[in-house]
Amino acid sequence: MDGFRIPIGMWAEDAVRWMRDNLDWLLGTLSMVMGTLVRSLTELLVSTPIVVVIVIAALLAWLLRSWQFALGTAITFALILGMGQWITAMQTLALVLVATVVTVLVAVPLGILAARSDRFSAILRPILDLMQAMPGFVYLIPAIVFFSIGVVPGLVATIIFSLPPGVRLTELGIRGVDGETVEAGYAFGAKPGQILRGVQLPLAMPTIMTGINQVIMLALSMAVIAGIAGAPGLGSEIVQAMSTVDIATGVEAGLSVVIIAVYLDRLTAALGAARDYRWSLLGILQRRRAASKRAVVSDAQRGLAQVA
After folding, report:
1. CB-based burial of residue 111 (10 Å sphere; 0-12 exposed, 13-18 middle, 19+ buried)?
2. Which residue has the higher pLDDT, 295 or 107?
3. Which residues of 52-79 are buried (b: 16+ CB within 10 A; e: fewer)?
4. How far apart are the C-alpha atoms of 153 and 230, rounded to whole Å?
5. Phi/psi zone of residue 233: left (φ > 0), alpha (ψ -120 to 50 degrees), beta?
6. How far apart are CA 167 and CA 173, in angstroms?
7. Residues 26, 29, 31, 33: what is their CA dihedral angle, to the nearest 10 degrees?
């Protein structure tokens, strides 16, 4: 058995080379689209007056959570500006927002399919396990091979790294919906698509929002690592600070990452807690079930009164 070796790494390298050579048109299109999205959002955030960005962020915090959170948002964002990290923070925020949107657009449909099909869930589960257990640095290698140096490989690696929790928690939320509520929807003549949009997704939304929260946190952590691939932002600042042992820059960039992470974390948590089902199919079902229960109680009370 001496010298026996399974060349899995060589097989992976051959697969990456084949994809690079035969799917160049697709990789080029993806690179152009994703690069344009990140650059456009970055230009929008950077060109918008700083006061306007801070006010909008504080208003969102106030509307979705509390005035204390809004005040803390204004102070901490002003701190980022005072540390001279505003532009790099907006570059990182743009990367994280684009990565989150793309990840959610992929993760939620996959989670719904996994919740509806046990076979698809069984196939998807080991793939997600592999994606979640793989160190984040590993994703940068094929991303750099496919897309060269810059923001695109960092974005692609961030999307892949942050995808698993979005899929898992979407599936968990859909599977956790009360079966009686779903059956009530079918009893009222709703179609599967209406049940999904009007019952399952609203009830599963807190769990799905938890998944989106985790996606954002992982995207932020990977966005810093993506600085090694040349992605601009706080990640590149931290990488440069590490290479030059610049403690001051490292602390300032790291603190800016923490501020953005806390803001997005609290904001998505507030979105997950805000639920209004009044005009959805779920709201109708809940009102009808409540009316039925009240009618049963009223009949029971009248029967007791007649007996008495």
Report:
1. buried
2. 107
3. ebbeebbebbbebbeeebbebbbebbee
4. 8
5. left
6. 10
7. -140
CB atoms within 10 A of CB 216: 24
Which amino acid, residue 249? T
- Tens digit of pLDDT for each residue in 264-284? 888 888 776 655 444 444 555
| Residue 199 contacts residue 187 (beta carbons within 8 Å) | no
Instruction: Classify residue 177 by its DSSP letter.
Output: S
Residue 103: both structure tokens together: 């990840």
pLDDT at residue number 76: 92
Average pLDDT in the chain: 80
pLDDT interval class at 292 (50, 70, 90): low
DSSP secondary structure letters along 88-102: HHHHHHHHHHHHHHH
Alpha carbon 17 to its chain centroid, in Å, reads 30
HSE value, Cβ hemisphere, 13 Å, CA-based, for 167:
26
Which amino acid is residue 120, in one-letter code?
F
| Span 172-227, pLDDT tens digits | 988 888 777 777 777 777 777 777 777 778 888 888 888 888 888 888 888 777 78
Question: Half-sphere exposure (CA, 13 Å, Cβ side) for 206?
Answer: 8
Higher pLDDT: 2 or 228? It is 228
Structure tokens at 144: 């750099």
DSSP state of 233: S
Question: Nearest Cα to 38, choosing from 195, 212, 168, 232?
Answer: 232
For residue 205, which amino acid is it?
A: M
As given in the structure block, the two tokens for residue 53 are 């960005």
Distance CA 22, CA 24 (A): 6
The whole-model pTM stands at: 0.79
